[in-house]
Amino acid sequence: MRAAVSALFFMNGMIVGGWAPQVPELAARHGLSESDMGLVILALGFGSILIMPLSGALIARIGSRPVLRVTCLACSAALLPVVLAPHVTALAVIMFIFGGIIGSMDIAMNANAVVVERRLGRAIMSSCHGFWSLGGLLGASIGGWLIDLAGSVEQAMVVTAAGFLVALASLRHISPDLPIAADAKPKFRLTLNPMPYVLGLVALFSMVPEGAILDWGALYLRQDLGADVATSGLAFGAVAATMAVMRFAGDAVRQRFGAVTTVRFSTVIAAAGLIMAAGAESPFWAIAGFALSGIGIANLVPVALSAAGNVPGLPPGVGISIATSMGYAGILMGPAVIGFVAEYNSFTVAFYGLSCLFGVVLLLSSITRHADIGGEAVLSTS
Asked: How many angstroms separate the CA atoms of 307 and 262, rounded?
């Protein structure tokens, strides 16, 4: 059960990582400017945000396992149609669907990981997201090399085949859902308590930079710093690598130093990394800056969501749902705004601006003290 859900986290990360080095290729093939490409990426964000609630409602009705079975197979084949899109209109439509599939699988695999945690009686969520980061590292780093070696379509075919094999191997071993009586299901209600919304801002401002590096890091290296195709894929790969290491270590770090201290040091490191990447004069230093930023970004969202699930007087599901929705909107919608900034100014200005978001997280860090009440993160997102 644990191996299956971990493998699916890895596969989802690999598909997303495989998308990263395709961004400059798609922009060049369709003659898109940064703002035009930002609109295409915005279609991905809208697809996720609009379809994710439907997936969540379906999971509540029939459970996570059947939804995860369908979405993992769909996710494995999601990248190839993006690459094969014949024109910009088709690309935007396909990106909408791509975002919906990625987002739906994200919800289903997180929900199933919670089921596995309850069956095993111990936390596994941080390690699951560590496997997602490993998948992102593999997809991004090898993806650029494959595009350079064989071409963008061939890279998408390799990613699709690998994703399908992982999905196929995992299908039979996905954990069945725990039975829940119909009258035991809590009704979801929004709250007027400001704390989960403030924690949602922490998640939002932590995830926007991650999404920006994913969607724009490769183009920044190619366009502004003269990197080749293989090297440009290392932008997100570097972030995925350092995030993977820190996510596997995240529970121990927070237990040792506490949530507030962990967040404060993490924001300083994340901001320093982005400033380093923005001011880089070579691809090497930009990649090093992105890697440093990943060390800081890695555990900001898990701590924020754990705190949201432990707000006094508030049901855990309500706080987590609010914070997760706000954070996920950031990683999906934020990069589209970055595209407009980059076109009318530069990626350097955009990344400098993103570092300021971590300053806001630093100012709000004291509210993450609630994460120490529950001890461990209840839910996290990729």
From this structure: 13
Q: What is the pLDDT of residues 82-116, one digit of tens each?
A: 999 999 999 999 999 998 899 889 878 877 887 78
> Which pTM was predicted?
0.72
Contact 327, 275 (CB under 8 A): no
- Residue with tokens 């995925």, as numbered in its chain: 240
Q: Are 158 and 145 in contact (CB under 8 A)?
A: no
Give the distance from CA 129 to its chain's centroid: 9
Range of the domain at 52: 2-176+193-374
pLDDT of 45 higher than 60: yes
> Domain of 303: which CATH number?
1.20.1250.20
For the chain, the C-alpha Rg in angstroms (whole number) is 19
Question: What is the crossing angle of helices 64-76 and 152-170, to 10°?
Answer: 150
Residue 185 lies in a domain: no
Neighbours of 112 (CB within 10 A): 27
- Over residues 343-370, the mean pLDDT reads 90
Statement: residue 177 has pLDDT above 50: yes
Instruction: Determine what percent of the chain is predicted with pLDDT higher than 70.
Output: 89
Q: What is the 3-state secondary structure (H, E, C) of 80-124?
A: HHHHHCCCHHHHHHHHHHHHHHHHHHHHHHHHHHHHHHHHHCCCC
Encoded amino acid at 289, one letter:
G
Task: Tell me the C-alpha distance between 277 and 273, whole Å.
Answer: 6
Instruction: Look up tokens 């969202």; give the residue.
Output: 301
Residue 60 resides in a domain: yes
Q: Is residue 382 part of a domain?
A: no
Total domains in the chain come to: 1
Q: 253, 202, 196, 193: which is closest to 363 by C-alpha?
A: 202
Task: Count CB atoms within 10 A of the CB of residue 288.
Answer: 16
What residue type is 281 in one-letter code? Answer: E
The conformation of residue 122, written as its DSSP 8-state character, comes to S
Asked whether residue 300 is assigned to any structural domain, the reply reads yes
